[in-house]
Design goal:
The complex is a heterodimer of chains A (about 260) and B (about 350). Chain A is mostly helical. Chain A contains twelve helices and no strands. Chain A has one domain. Chain B has helices spanning about 55-60, 80-85, 105-115, 120-130, 150-160, 180-195, 205-210, 230-235, 250-255, 285-295, 310-320, 325-340, and strands at about 15-25, 25-40, 40-45, 70-75, 75, 90, 165-170, 200-205, 215-220, 225-230, 240-245, 265-270, 270-275, 300-305. The chains are: A mainly alpha (about 260), B alpha/beta (about 350).
Protein backbone atom coordinates (compact mmCIF):
# COMPACT_ATOMS: atom_id res chain seq x y z
CA UNK A 1 0.00 0.00 0.00
CA UNK A 2 2.74 2.39 0.98
CA UNK A 3 4.82 1.41 -1.97
CA UNK A 4 2.16 2.66 -4.32
CA UNK A 5 1.99 5.89 -2.40
CA UNK A 6 5.71 6.39 -2.53
CA UNK A 7 5.83 6.05 -6.28
CA UNK A 8 3.21 8.73 -6.74
CA UNK A 9 4.69 11.67 -8.53
CA UNK A 10 2.49 14.15 -6.71
CA UNK A 11 2.49 13.06 -3.10
CA UNK A 12 0.62 15.66 -1.00
CA UNK A 13 2.02 14.91 2.46
CA UNK A 14 5.72 15.20 1.58
CA UNK A 15 4.98 18.25 -0.59
CA UNK A 16 3.27 19.89 2.37
CA UNK A 17 6.09 18.80 4.68
CA UNK A 18 8.79 20.30 2.51
CA UNK A 19 6.75 23.47 2.10
CA UNK A 20 6.23 23.72 5.84
CA UNK A 21 9.92 23.34 6.49
CA UNK A 22 10.79 26.18 4.13
CA UNK A 23 8.23 28.41 5.79
CA UNK A 24 9.47 27.61 9.29
CA UNK A 25 13.05 28.23 8.34
CA UNK A 26 12.11 31.49 6.67
CA UNK A 27 10.23 32.80 9.66
CA UNK A 28 12.82 31.61 12.11
CA UNK A 29 15.85 33.30 10.64
CA UNK A 30 14.83 36.90 11.23
CA UNK A 31 18.16 38.25 10.07
CA UNK A 32 17.66 36.66 6.69
CA UNK A 33 14.19 38.11 6.28
CA UNK A 34 15.43 41.57 7.13
CA UNK A 35 18.57 41.13 5.05
CA UNK A 36 16.67 40.05 1.99
CA UNK A 37 14.45 43.12 2.23
CA UNK A 38 17.25 45.61 2.79
CA UNK A 39 18.76 45.59 -0.68
CA UNK A 40 15.49 46.26 -2.53
CA UNK A 41 14.71 48.89 0.07
CA UNK A 42 18.06 50.59 -0.57
CA UNK A 43 17.44 50.62 -4.29
CA UNK A 44 14.02 52.17 -3.84
CA UNK A 45 15.14 54.74 -1.29
CA UNK A 46 18.64 55.67 -2.49
CA UNK A 47 18.20 55.22 -6.23
CA UNK A 48 14.49 55.69 -6.73
CA UNK A 49 13.81 58.75 -4.61
CA UNK A 50 16.78 60.89 -5.80
CA UNK A 51 16.30 60.02 -9.47
CA UNK A 52 12.60 60.58 -9.07
CA UNK A 53 13.10 64.29 -8.64
CA UNK A 54 15.90 64.72 -11.19
CA UNK A 55 15.38 62.66 -14.28
CA UNK A 56 11.81 61.52 -14.50
CA UNK A 57 10.82 63.26 -17.70
CA UNK A 58 14.17 63.24 -19.48
CA UNK A 59 14.40 59.49 -20.08
CA UNK A 60 12.65 58.11 -23.17
CA UNK A 61 10.07 55.51 -22.13
CA UNK A 62 9.33 57.31 -18.92
CA UNK A 63 7.00 59.91 -20.33
CA UNK A 64 3.96 60.50 -18.23
CA UNK A 65 5.14 58.68 -15.13
CA UNK A 66 7.56 59.10 -12.25
CA UNK A 67 10.86 57.26 -12.01
CA UNK A 68 9.75 55.65 -8.77
CA UNK A 69 6.69 54.21 -10.47
CA UNK A 70 8.99 52.86 -13.12
CA UNK A 71 11.58 51.50 -10.72
CA UNK A 72 9.31 49.78 -8.18
CA UNK A 73 8.24 46.84 -10.41
CA UNK A 74 11.89 46.42 -11.42
CA UNK A 75 12.88 46.08 -7.79
CA UNK A 76 10.05 43.62 -7.19
CA UNK A 77 11.47 41.67 -10.14
CA UNK A 78 14.92 41.85 -8.57
CA UNK A 79 13.57 40.47 -5.29
CA UNK A 80 12.01 37.55 -7.16
CA UNK A 81 15.21 36.93 -9.10
CA UNK A 82 17.39 36.80 -6.00
CA UNK A 83 14.94 34.95 -3.78
CA UNK A 84 13.98 32.47 -6.50
CA UNK A 85 17.53 31.68 -7.56
CA UNK A 86 18.59 31.38 -3.93
CA UNK A 87 15.71 29.10 -3.12
CA UNK A 88 16.65 26.74 -5.93
CA UNK A 89 20.37 26.99 -5.38
CA UNK A 90 20.20 26.53 -1.62
CA UNK A 91 19.74 22.85 -2.38
CA UNK A 92 23.55 23.01 -2.25
CA UNK A 93 23.38 24.11 1.36
CA UNK A 94 21.00 21.35 2.27
CA UNK A 95 23.23 18.88 0.56
CA UNK A 96 26.44 20.23 2.06
CA UNK A 97 25.03 20.33 5.57
CA UNK A 98 23.47 16.96 5.27
CA UNK A 99 19.81 17.63 5.67
CA UNK A 100 19.03 16.68 2.10
CA UNK A 101 20.49 13.20 2.48
CA UNK A 102 17.79 12.28 4.90
CA UNK A 103 15.14 13.45 2.47
CA UNK A 104 16.67 11.69 -0.49
CA UNK A 105 16.57 8.29 1.19
CA UNK A 106 12.96 8.62 2.29
CA UNK A 107 10.57 6.51 0.25
CA UNK A 108 9.19 9.55 -1.50
CA UNK A 109 9.20 10.55 -5.13
CA UNK A 110 11.92 13.12 -5.76
CA UNK A 111 9.63 15.30 -7.80
CA UNK A 112 7.33 15.73 -4.82
CA UNK A 113 10.32 16.62 -2.67
CA UNK A 114 11.53 19.34 -4.99
CA UNK A 115 8.03 20.56 -5.74
CA UNK A 116 7.27 21.08 -2.07
CA UNK A 117 10.60 22.71 -1.46
CA UNK A 118 10.25 25.03 -4.44
CA UNK A 119 6.70 25.95 -3.50
CA UNK A 120 7.99 26.87 -0.05
CA UNK A 121 10.79 28.96 -1.53
CA UNK A 122 8.36 30.62 -3.91
CA UNK A 123 5.93 31.42 -1.13
CA UNK A 124 8.63 33.17 0.84
CA UNK A 125 9.91 34.97 -2.28
CA UNK A 126 6.43 36.24 -3.12
CA UNK A 127 5.86 37.36 0.46
CA UNK A 128 9.06 39.39 0.17
CA UNK A 129 7.96 40.78 -3.19
CA UNK A 130 4.62 41.83 -1.71
CA UNK A 131 6.35 43.57 1.18
CA UNK A 132 8.40 45.49 -1.40
CA UNK A 133 5.19 46.44 -3.23
CA UNK A 134 3.81 47.67 0.09
CA UNK A 135 6.93 49.72 0.81
CA UNK A 136 6.85 51.15 -2.71
CA UNK A 137 3.24 52.20 -2.30
CA UNK A 138 4.14 53.83 1.00
CA UNK A 139 6.84 55.78 -0.85
CA UNK A 140 4.31 57.13 -3.27
CA UNK A 141 4.06 54.59 -6.09
CA UNK A 142 0.56 54.44 -7.53
CA UNK A 143 -0.77 51.04 -8.57
CA UNK A 144 -2.86 51.02 -11.74
CA UNK A 145 -5.75 48.73 -10.78
CA UNK A 146 -6.91 45.88 -8.56
CA UNK A 147 -7.13 43.54 -11.54
CA UNK A 148 -3.62 44.57 -12.48
CA UNK A 149 -2.42 43.67 -9.01
CA UNK A 150 -3.82 40.16 -9.26
CA UNK A 151 -2.32 39.73 -12.71
CA UNK A 152 0.96 40.87 -11.21
CA UNK A 153 0.71 37.99 -8.72
CA UNK A 154 0.60 35.59 -11.67
CA UNK A 155 3.69 37.24 -13.16
CA UNK A 156 5.40 36.90 -9.79
CA UNK A 157 4.66 33.19 -9.58
CA UNK A 158 5.91 32.58 -13.12
CA UNK A 159 9.06 34.67 -12.69
CA UNK A 160 9.83 33.11 -9.36
CA UNK A 161 9.25 29.55 -10.60
CA UNK A 162 11.50 30.15 -13.60
CA UNK A 163 14.38 31.39 -11.44
CA UNK A 164 13.89 28.69 -8.83
CA UNK A 165 14.32 26.20 -11.66
CA UNK A 166 17.35 28.16 -12.83
CA UNK A 167 18.85 28.06 -9.33
CA UNK A 168 18.24 24.33 -9.15
CA UNK A 169 20.04 23.78 -12.42
CA UNK A 170 23.06 25.73 -11.17
CA UNK A 171 23.02 23.88 -7.84
CA UNK A 172 22.69 20.38 -9.23
CA UNK A 173 25.16 20.89 -12.04
CA UNK A 174 27.72 22.81 -10.01
CA UNK A 175 27.45 20.95 -6.77
CA UNK A 176 29.78 22.90 -4.49
CA UNK A 177 29.52 25.97 -2.32
CA UNK A 178 32.59 27.88 -3.45
CA UNK A 179 31.77 27.88 -7.12
CA UNK A 180 28.23 28.73 -6.29
CA UNK A 181 28.88 32.20 -4.89
CA UNK A 182 30.99 33.10 -7.90
CA UNK A 183 28.29 31.92 -10.28
CA UNK A 184 25.67 33.83 -8.39
CA UNK A 185 27.57 37.07 -8.85
CA UNK A 186 28.61 36.26 -12.37
CA UNK A 187 25.17 35.39 -13.65
CA UNK A 188 22.57 36.88 -11.36
CA UNK A 189 23.84 40.46 -11.32
CA UNK A 190 24.06 40.80 -15.12
CA UNK A 191 20.58 39.30 -15.35
CA UNK A 192 19.40 41.99 -13.00
CA UNK A 193 21.19 44.95 -14.63
CA UNK A 194 20.24 43.87 -18.14
CA UNK A 195 16.58 43.34 -17.34
CA UNK A 196 15.52 46.94 -17.73
CA UNK A 197 14.71 47.02 -14.03
CA UNK A 198 16.59 50.31 -13.58
CA UNK A 199 16.31 51.97 -16.99
CA UNK A 200 13.84 51.59 -19.82
CA UNK A 201 14.88 49.42 -22.73
CA UNK A 202 13.78 52.13 -25.13
CA UNK A 203 16.58 54.41 -23.94
CA UNK A 204 19.34 51.83 -24.47
CA UNK A 205 21.72 51.69 -27.44
CA UNK A 206 20.53 49.13 -29.95
CA UNK A 207 23.31 46.55 -29.35
CA UNK A 208 22.40 46.49 -25.68
CA UNK A 209 18.73 46.18 -26.52
CA UNK A 210 19.35 42.84 -28.17
CA UNK A 211 21.22 41.58 -25.10
CA UNK A 212 18.32 42.69 -22.97
CA UNK A 213 15.85 40.89 -25.19
CA UNK A 214 17.46 37.53 -24.31
CA UNK A 215 17.49 38.28 -20.58
CA UNK A 216 14.62 36.25 -19.09
CA UNK A 217 14.07 38.77 -16.31
CA UNK A 218 13.32 41.49 -18.90
CA UNK A 219 9.94 39.88 -19.48
CA UNK A 220 9.27 39.39 -15.80
CA UNK A 221 10.03 43.02 -15.04
CA UNK A 222 8.09 44.25 -18.05
CA UNK A 223 5.12 42.07 -17.12
CA UNK A 224 5.21 43.38 -13.55
CA UNK A 225 5.43 46.94 -14.81
CA UNK A 226 2.52 46.42 -17.17
CA UNK A 227 0.30 44.90 -14.53
CA UNK A 228 1.31 46.92 -11.49
CA UNK A 229 1.74 50.47 -12.80
CA UNK A 230 0.45 50.19 -16.36
CA UNK A 231 3.58 50.97 -18.38
CA UNK A 232 5.36 48.36 -20.46
CA UNK A 233 7.75 48.05 -23.36
CA UNK A 234 6.15 44.90 -24.75
CA UNK A 235 2.53 43.83 -25.02
CA UNK A 236 1.48 41.83 -21.94
CA UNK A 237 0.66 38.71 -23.97
CA UNK A 238 4.29 38.57 -25.09
CA UNK A 239 5.53 38.84 -21.50
CA UNK A 240 3.20 36.10 -20.38
CA UNK A 241 4.05 33.78 -23.26
CA UNK A 242 7.79 34.12 -22.72
CA UNK A 243 7.42 33.67 -18.96
CA UNK A 244 5.24 30.58 -19.24
CA UNK A 245 7.63 28.91 -21.68
CA UNK A 246 10.65 29.84 -19.56
CA UNK A 247 8.98 28.71 -16.39
CA UNK A 248 8.02 25.30 -17.83
CA UNK A 249 11.43 24.75 -19.38
CA UNK A 250 13.58 25.79 -16.41
CA UNK A 251 11.40 24.23 -13.73
CA UNK A 252 11.18 20.94 -15.63
CA UNK A 253 14.90 20.84 -16.29
CA UNK A 254 15.71 21.82 -12.70
CA UNK A 255 13.54 19.15 -11.16
CA UNK A 256 14.83 16.60 -13.65
CA UNK A 257 18.42 17.29 -12.62
CA UNK A 258 17.38 17.16 -9.00
CA UNK A 259 15.75 13.77 -9.42
CA UNK A 260 18.96 12.47 -10.95
CA UNK A 261 21.12 13.88 -8.20
CA UNK A 262 23.02 11.35 -6.12
CA UNK A 263 22.19 11.43 -2.47
CA UNK A 264 25.82 11.39 -1.58
CA UNK B 1 36.10 -17.29 9.24
CA UNK B 2 35.97 -15.43 5.97
CA UNK B 3 32.69 -14.20 4.57
CA UNK B 4 31.63 -17.05 2.42
CA UNK B 5 32.09 -19.89 4.80
CA UNK B 6 30.33 -18.05 7.58
CA UNK B 7 27.00 -19.31 8.90
CA UNK B 8 24.65 -17.12 10.92
CA UNK B 9 23.28 -18.43 14.15
CA UNK B 10 19.97 -16.81 13.52
CA UNK B 11 17.95 -18.53 10.83
CA UNK B 12 16.22 -15.36 9.68
CA UNK B 13 18.73 -13.09 8.06
CA UNK B 14 17.67 -9.52 7.47
CA UNK B 15 20.60 -8.57 5.29
CA UNK B 16 22.33 -10.76 2.78
CA UNK B 17 25.02 -9.68 0.41
CA UNK B 18 26.77 -11.60 -2.30
CA UNK B 19 30.01 -10.36 -3.80
CA UNK B 20 28.88 -6.81 -3.20
CA UNK B 21 31.38 -4.53 -4.94
CA UNK B 22 31.73 -0.81 -5.49
CA UNK B 23 34.33 0.85 -7.65
CA UNK B 24 35.01 4.56 -7.94
CA UNK B 25 36.94 5.36 -11.11
CA UNK B 26 38.76 2.06 -11.04
CA UNK B 27 39.43 2.22 -7.30
CA UNK B 28 37.79 -0.68 -5.55
CA UNK B 29 36.20 0.71 -2.40
CA UNK B 30 34.24 -2.39 -1.51
CA UNK B 31 35.58 -5.66 -2.76
CA UNK B 32 33.30 -8.68 -3.10
CA UNK B 33 31.68 -8.62 0.30
CA UNK B 34 29.56 -11.61 1.14
CA UNK B 35 27.86 -11.69 4.50
CA UNK B 36 24.57 -12.00 6.22
CA UNK B 37 23.14 -10.26 9.26
CA UNK B 38 20.59 -11.99 11.42
CA UNK B 39 17.44 -10.61 12.91
CA UNK B 40 17.89 -8.47 16.06
CA UNK B 41 21.63 -8.62 15.69
CA UNK B 42 23.94 -5.68 16.33
CA UNK B 43 26.43 -5.99 13.54
CA UNK B 44 29.49 -3.80 13.16
CA UNK B 45 31.82 -2.94 10.33
CA UNK B 46 35.16 -2.19 11.92
CA UNK B 47 38.02 -0.67 10.04
CA UNK B 48 40.15 2.41 9.57
CA UNK B 49 39.04 5.45 7.62
CA UNK B 50 38.80 4.68 3.95
CA UNK B 51 38.42 0.95 4.48
CA UNK B 52 35.09 0.93 2.70
CA UNK B 53 32.74 0.52 5.63
CA UNK B 54 30.73 3.63 4.88
CA UNK B 55 30.55 2.75 1.21
CA UNK B 56 29.28 -0.70 2.10
CA UNK B 57 26.59 0.76 4.35
CA UNK B 58 25.65 3.37 1.75
CA UNK B 59 25.02 0.61 -0.75
CA UNK B 60 22.85 -1.24 1.74
CA UNK B 61 20.93 2.01 2.36
CA UNK B 62 20.31 2.45 -1.39
CA UNK B 63 22.30 5.68 -1.46
CA UNK B 64 24.91 4.20 -3.78
CA UNK B 65 24.41 1.62 -6.47
CA UNK B 66 26.76 -1.36 -6.38
CA UNK B 67 29.12 -1.83 -9.32
CA UNK B 68 28.59 -5.57 -9.18
CA UNK B 69 27.24 -8.19 -6.85
CA UNK B 70 23.93 -8.04 -5.07
CA UNK B 71 22.42 -7.47 -1.69
CA UNK B 72 19.05 -7.88 -0.10
CA UNK B 73 17.76 -5.92 2.85
CA UNK B 74 14.56 -7.22 4.43
CA UNK B 75 14.26 -9.45 1.40
CA UNK B 76 14.32 -6.59 -1.10
CA UNK B 77 16.97 -5.99 -3.69
CA UNK B 78 18.94 -2.82 -2.91
CA UNK B 79 19.31 -1.82 -6.55
CA UNK B 80 15.94 -2.78 -7.98
CA UNK B 81 13.56 -2.27 -5.05
CA UNK B 82 14.95 0.90 -3.52
CA UNK B 83 11.65 2.23 -2.22
CA UNK B 84 10.84 -1.10 -0.56
CA UNK B 85 14.22 -1.14 1.11
CA UNK B 86 13.86 2.48 2.18
CA UNK B 87 10.59 1.75 3.88
CA UNK B 88 12.08 -0.85 6.16
CA UNK B 89 15.31 0.88 7.15
CA UNK B 90 16.38 3.85 9.25
CA UNK B 91 19.66 5.65 8.75
CA UNK B 92 21.87 7.79 10.92
CA UNK B 93 24.48 9.37 8.72
CA UNK B 94 28.10 9.96 9.57
CA UNK B 95 27.82 13.70 9.04
CA UNK B 96 25.14 15.64 10.79
CA UNK B 97 21.99 15.39 8.71
CA UNK B 98 19.46 17.21 10.79
CA UNK B 99 17.90 20.62 10.25
CA UNK B 100 19.59 22.85 12.79
CA UNK B 101 17.11 25.69 12.30
CA UNK B 102 14.24 23.51 13.46
CA UNK B 103 13.59 22.07 16.89
CA UNK B 104 14.08 18.41 17.66
CA UNK B 105 10.37 17.76 17.64
CA UNK B 106 9.92 19.55 14.33
CA UNK B 107 12.64 17.40 12.84
CA UNK B 108 10.90 14.27 14.09
CA UNK B 109 7.53 15.46 12.79
CA UNK B 110 9.11 16.24 9.47
CA UNK B 111 10.57 12.78 9.22
CA UNK B 112 7.33 11.09 10.24
CA UNK B 113 5.41 12.94 7.55
CA UNK B 114 8.00 12.09 4.92
CA UNK B 115 7.42 8.46 5.81
CA UNK B 116 3.65 8.88 5.50
CA UNK B 117 2.76 8.32 9.14
CA UNK B 118 -0.74 9.64 9.79
CA UNK B 119 -1.31 12.35 12.38
CA UNK B 120 -2.24 10.09 15.27
CA UNK B 121 0.53 7.57 14.70
CA UNK B 122 2.97 10.40 14.30
CA UNK B 123 2.16 11.97 17.63
CA UNK B 124 2.22 8.68 19.47
CA UNK B 125 5.43 7.59 17.85
CA UNK B 126 7.24 10.88 18.36
CA UNK B 127 6.30 10.77 22.05
CA UNK B 128 7.56 7.19 22.24
CA UNK B 129 10.96 7.88 20.74
CA UNK B 130 11.42 11.02 22.83
CA UNK B 131 10.70 8.95 25.90
CA UNK B 132 12.96 6.10 24.91
CA UNK B 133 15.98 8.27 24.18
CA UNK B 134 15.41 10.53 27.18
CA UNK B 135 14.82 13.56 25.04
CA UNK B 136 11.80 14.80 26.93
CA UNK B 137 12.18 18.45 27.76
CA UNK B 138 14.62 19.01 24.92
CA UNK B 139 12.19 18.50 22.07
CA UNK B 140 11.40 22.19 21.71
CA UNK B 141 14.99 23.34 21.67
CA UNK B 142 16.45 24.29 18.37
CA UNK B 143 18.89 21.64 17.19
CA UNK B 144 21.62 24.26 16.84
CA UNK B 145 21.33 24.90 20.58
CA UNK B 146 21.61 21.25 21.59
CA UNK B 147 24.91 19.62 22.52
CA UNK B 148 26.59 17.29 20.07
CA UNK B 149 25.44 14.24 22.00
CA UNK B 150 21.83 15.41 22.10
CA UNK B 151 21.87 16.22 18.40
CA UNK B 152 23.11 12.75 17.73
CA UNK B 153 20.40 11.27 19.93
CA UNK B 154 17.77 13.16 17.97
CA UNK B 155 19.21 11.70 14.81
CA UNK B 156 19.06 8.21 16.26
CA UNK B 157 15.51 8.90 17.46
CA UNK B 158 14.57 9.97 13.98
CA UNK B 159 16.28 6.95 12.49
CA UNK B 160 13.96 4.48 14.15
CA UNK B 161 10.84 6.63 14.19
CA UNK B 162 9.21 4.78 11.33
CA UNK B 163 9.62 1.34 12.93
CA UNK B 164 12.43 0.21 10.68
CA UNK B 165 13.50 -3.40 10.80
CA UNK B 166 17.10 -2.37 10.30
CA UNK B 167 18.78 0.73 11.64
CA UNK B 168 22.05 1.79 10.01
CA UNK B 169 24.41 3.87 12.10
CA UNK B 170 27.41 5.28 10.28
CA UNK B 171 30.07 6.16 12.87
CA UNK B 172 27.38 7.00 15.43
CA UNK B 173 29.69 8.38 18.11
CA UNK B 174 32.24 10.16 15.94
CA UNK B 175 33.15 13.49 17.50
CA UNK B 176 31.36 12.88 20.78
CA UNK B 177 33.07 13.10 24.14
CA UNK B 178 33.57 9.99 26.21
CA UNK B 179 30.50 10.45 28.35
CA UNK B 180 28.15 11.19 25.47
CA UNK B 181 29.60 8.22 23.66
CA UNK B 182 28.93 5.79 26.50
CA UNK B 183 25.50 7.27 26.85
CA UNK B 184 24.67 6.70 23.22
CA UNK B 185 25.97 3.15 23.35
CA UNK B 186 23.50 2.34 26.08
CA UNK B 187 20.65 3.85 24.10
CA UNK B 188 21.62 1.84 21.07
CA UNK B 189 21.60 -1.33 23.14
CA UNK B 190 18.25 -0.39 24.60
CA UNK B 191 16.80 0.16 21.14
CA UNK B 192 18.04 -3.18 20.01
CA UNK B 193 16.33 -4.87 22.93
CA UNK B 194 13.14 -2.85 23.24
CA UNK B 195 12.32 -2.29 19.61
CA UNK B 196 13.49 -5.60 18.23
CA UNK B 197 15.58 -3.77 15.75
CA UNK B 198 18.54 -5.07 13.80
CA UNK B 199 21.39 -2.59 14.00
CA UNK B 200 24.22 -2.27 11.54
CA UNK B 201 26.93 0.18 12.47
CA UNK B 202 30.31 1.25 11.22
CA UNK B 203 33.04 2.32 13.54
CA UNK B 204 36.74 2.64 13.88
CA UNK B 205 36.61 2.39 17.65
CA UNK B 206 37.40 -1.06 18.95
CA UNK B 207 35.73 -0.31 22.30
CA UNK B 208 32.57 0.59 20.47
CA UNK B 209 32.47 -2.59 18.46
CA UNK B 210 33.47 -4.49 21.56
CA UNK B 211 30.76 -3.00 23.75
CA UNK B 212 27.91 -3.00 21.30
CA UNK B 213 28.26 -5.59 18.61
CA UNK B 214 27.22 -9.18 18.65
CA UNK B 215 29.34 -9.69 15.59
CA UNK B 216 31.99 -7.60 13.92
CA UNK B 217 33.31 -7.63 10.38
CA UNK B 218 36.85 -6.34 10.14
CA UNK B 219 37.18 -4.57 6.85
CA UNK B 220 40.37 -3.45 5.16
CA UNK B 221 40.84 -2.02 1.71
CA UNK B 222 37.33 -3.03 0.82
CA UNK B 223 37.71 -6.62 1.88
CA UNK B 224 36.29 -8.36 4.87
CA UNK B 225 39.22 -10.00 6.56
CA UNK B 226 37.33 -11.50 9.49
CA UNK B 227 33.82 -11.82 10.82
CA UNK B 228 33.15 -12.97 14.33
CA UNK B 229 32.13 -11.94 17.81
CA UNK B 230 34.46 -9.35 19.38
CA UNK B 231 35.64 -11.89 21.98
CA UNK B 232 36.66 -14.41 19.36
CA UNK B 233 38.32 -11.77 17.25
CA UNK B 234 40.45 -10.58 20.12
CA UNK B 235 41.31 -14.09 21.17
CA UNK B 236 42.57 -14.77 17.69
CA UNK B 237 44.94 -11.82 17.89
CA UNK B 238 46.54 -13.60 20.73
CA UNK B 239 47.85 -12.77 24.07
CA UNK B 240 48.19 -9.72 26.19
CA UNK B 241 51.72 -8.58 26.80
CA UNK B 242 53.32 -7.51 30.04
CA UNK B 243 56.45 -5.43 30.04
CA UNK B 244 58.50 -5.72 33.25
CA UNK B 245 61.49 -3.92 34.63
CA UNK B 246 63.34 -5.56 37.43
CA UNK B 247 65.97 -4.13 39.65
CA UNK B 248 69.28 -5.97 39.64
CA UNK B 249 69.59 -8.88 37.34
CA UNK B 250 66.65 -10.46 35.70
CA UNK B 251 68.27 -13.68 34.62
CA UNK B 252 67.14 -15.57 37.70
CA UNK B 253 63.56 -14.58 37.23
CA UNK B 254 63.38 -15.60 33.60
CA UNK B 255 63.96 -19.23 34.40
CA UNK B 256 61.45 -19.36 37.18
CA UNK B 257 58.85 -17.43 35.19
CA UNK B 258 58.89 -20.29 32.73
CA UNK B 259 57.20 -22.40 35.40
CA UNK B 260 54.08 -20.27 35.29
CA UNK B 261 51.68 -21.88 32.89
CA UNK B 262 50.03 -18.60 31.94
CA UNK B 263 53.28 -17.14 30.72
CA UNK B 264 53.49 -18.25 27.15
CA UNK B 265 56.59 -16.53 25.97
CA UNK B 266 59.41 -14.49 27.44
CA UNK B 267 61.70 -12.10 25.68
CA UNK B 268 64.41 -9.95 27.14
CA UNK B 269 64.80 -6.55 25.57
CA UNK B 270 66.90 -3.56 26.63
CA UNK B 271 66.90 -4.53 30.28
CA UNK B 272 63.24 -5.32 30.52
CA UNK B 273 61.22 -8.46 30.07
CA UNK B 274 58.30 -8.93 27.74
CA UNK B 275 55.87 -11.66 28.66
CA UNK B 276 53.10 -12.94 26.44
CA UNK B 277 50.44 -13.88 28.93
CA UNK B 278 47.16 -15.67 29.03
CA UNK B 279 44.94 -13.35 31.04
CA UNK B 280 44.72 -9.68 31.87
CA UNK B 281 45.24 -7.24 34.76
CA UNK B 282 44.74 -9.96 37.37
CA UNK B 283 48.16 -11.33 36.45
CA UNK B 284 49.99 -8.22 37.60
CA UNK B 285 49.63 -8.81 41.38
CA UNK B 286 50.42 -12.47 40.83
CA UNK B 287 53.56 -11.45 39.06
CA UNK B 288 54.58 -9.05 41.80
CA UNK B 289 54.01 -11.71 44.46
CA UNK B 290 55.94 -14.14 42.39
CA UNK B 291 58.92 -11.82 42.15
CA UNK B 292 58.60 -10.85 45.79
CA UNK B 293 58.83 -14.46 46.91
CA UNK B 294 62.11 -14.69 45.12
CA UNK B 295 63.46 -11.52 46.65
CA UNK B 296 63.26 -9.51 43.46
CA UNK B 297 61.82 -6.00 43.11
CA UNK B 298 59.80 -5.09 40.09
CA UNK B 299 60.29 -1.41 39.35
CA UNK B 300 57.66 -1.05 36.65
CA UNK B 301 54.92 -3.09 35.05
CA UNK B 302 52.96 -2.29 31.96
CA UNK B 303 50.12 -4.29 30.44
CA UNK B 304 49.37 -4.09 26.76
CA UNK B 305 46.09 -5.40 25.38
CA UNK B 306 45.29 -5.95 21.75
CA UNK B 307 43.40 -2.99 20.33
CA UNK B 308 41.90 -2.30 16.96
CA UNK B 309 45.26 -1.52 15.54
CA UNK B 310 46.61 -4.82 16.74
CA UNK B 311 43.60 -6.83 15.83
CA UNK B 312 43.67 -5.14 12.54
CA UNK B 313 47.36 -5.63 11.97
CA UNK B 314 46.92 -9.21 12.91
CA UNK B 315 44.17 -9.86 10.44
CA UNK B 316 45.59 -7.90 7.58
CA UNK B 317 49.14 -9.04 8.22
CA UNK B 318 48.17 -12.66 8.46
CA UNK B 319 47.69 -13.10 4.78
CA UNK B 320 51.13 -11.75 4.00
CA UNK B 321 53.37 -12.95 6.79
CA UNK B 322 53.61 -15.91 9.01
CA UNK B 323 52.13 -15.70 12.47
CA UNK B 324 55.44 -15.55 14.28
CA UNK B 325 56.43 -12.49 12.32
CA UNK B 326 53.15 -10.77 12.73
CA UNK B 327 53.23 -11.04 16.51
CA UNK B 328 56.51 -9.19 16.46
CA UNK B 329 54.96 -6.53 14.29
CA UNK B 330 52.13 -6.14 16.74
CA UNK B 331 54.65 -5.63 19.47
CA UNK B 332 56.49 -3.01 17.47
CA UNK B 333 53.24 -1.25 16.77
CA UNK B 334 52.47 -1.16 20.47
CA UNK B 335 55.81 0.29 21.26
CA UNK B 336 55.47 2.93 18.63
CA UNK B 337 52.06 3.88 19.83
CA UNK B 338 52.75 4.02 23.50
CA UNK B 339 55.90 5.97 22.76
CA UNK B 340 57.43 3.73 25.40
CA UNK B 341 61.09 3.06 25.16
CA UNK B 342 63.80 4.63 23.23
Amino acid sequence: MRAIESRRIIDPLPIYTMWLREMKRFLRVKARVVGSLLMPLFFLAFLGLPLNSITARQIPGLEGTSYLNFLAPGIVGMTLLFAGTMSGASVIWDKEFGFLKEVLVAPVNRFSVILGRSLGGMTTAIIQALIIVGIAVAMGVTLSSVAGFFLALVVMVLTCAAFTGFGLIIATKLGNLEGFMAIMNLIVFPIFFLSGALFPIQSMPSWLKYVMYVDPLTYGVDGLRGTLVGISAFPLWLDFTVLIILCLALATLGSYFFSKMEAD
Amino acid sequence: MLGKSYRVRNMNSVIETEDLTKEFDGLVAVNHITLSVGEREIFGFLGPNGAGKTTAVKMLCTILNPTSGAAKVCGYDIARQKDKVRECIGIVFQDRAIDTFLTGKENLDFHARMYHLDGKTRQRRVAEVLELLDLRGKENMRISQCSGGTQRRFEVARGFLNHPRVLFLDEPTLGLDVQARRNLWDYIKLLNEKEDITIVLTTHYMEEADYLCHRVAIIDQGRIVAIDSPEKLKQAVGLNLISLQIEDSSGALVDSLKQLNWVKKIEARDGSLELSIDGGEERIPELIDFADNRGLVISSVKLYKPSLEDTFLYYTGKTIREEEGSVKDIWKAWMRRSGGRR
